[in-house]
Amino acid sequence: MTQKFDVAVLGGGPAGLSGALVLGRARRSVVVVDAGVPRTAGSGAVHGFFSRDGIDAGELAGIGRAEAERYGAVLVRATAVAARRADDVFEVSLDDGRLITARRLLVATGLAEELPDIPGVEERWGRDVVHRSDYHGWELRDRPVAVIATHTAWAVRQALMFRRLTSEVTFLQHTAEAVTGQQAMQLAAWGIETIDGTVAAVDVAEDRITGVRLADGTVVPCEAVIVAPRLVADSAVLADLGRRG
Q1: What is d(CA 51, CA 218) in angstroms, rounded to the nearest whole number?
Q2: pLDDT per residue over 51-86, tens digit each?
Q3: pLDDT tens, 124-147?
Q4: Are residues 151 and 125 in contact, defined by beta-carbon separation less than 8 angstroms?
Q5: What proportion of the chain, given as a percentage, has pLDDT over 90?
Q6: Which residues on neighbouring strands pair with residue 193, listed in sequence order?
């Protein structure tokens, strides 16, 4: 079965639904394809969003879907697995066997995080394993945090940013290049302890982080962990269209 639209929007997050809303208001026929697995699922709440700070991520998405539907957008729960340009339209294949054609394609699937390969990190991601102080700092204020360094400059910057939110910040060198003399002085000036050694795992007890365990068995107590994910485009169809993530 083939359905035809003016625009196919891949991704039903804030960007995709905003696009569908504006296009619907312009009287374009729009379909939004989304798998229903939001990037923010782990964190639960959305912060720093004007008028909606602290709202549940699922509730925010529900509001966006209702607004898009008000202007005629069709919402499809599926994943786009392939796309190609055929003459003057795009053909999008879905994982449920359906085929959608559209004159224009808006890819709004966002980014996916490739996390450090450390036991416990993925399981706690978005809860008490996070990556930026401006996203999660308020929730972690006055709690002991450990910054696991995989990229030195980034880790130093986050350690200094989190130090403004909590007095207990530990910098774990892990696999990153050694800090420079200037970086070491900055960390020391703010009372941030630097510990060498590779991280072996994030320890969890009773559904909360209790510490970070190093390869030599040392456990660094903390209640939250800061890591640097590698961000990649979260859409398989980009390669089909000659775009790289």
Answers
A1: 44
A2: 999 999 889 999 999 999 999 999 999 999 999 999
A3: 999 999 999 998 899 999 999 999
A4: no
A5: 81
A6: 170
Domain spanning 2-112+232-240: CATH superfamily = FAD/NAD(P)-binding domain (3.50.50.60)
- The tokens for 239 are 């390669």
Q: Is 227 helix (H, G, I), strand (E, B) or coil?
A: coil
**Residue keyed to tokens 């982080």:** 209
**β-strands 74-77, 80-86 pairing:** unpaired
Length of the chain: 245
Q: What is the CATH number of domain 116-228?
A: 3.50.50.60
Matching residue, tokens 């699937």: 109
Q: What does each C-alpha distance from 168 to 19, 126, 137, 162 come to in angstroms?
A: 42, 20, 13, 9
Tokens for 28, please give them. Answer: 């374009």
- According to the model, what pLDDT value does residue 241 have? 85
Tokens standing for residue 236: 């398989």
CA 22, CA 95: separation in Å to the nearest integer? 27
**Model confidence pTM above 0.90:** no
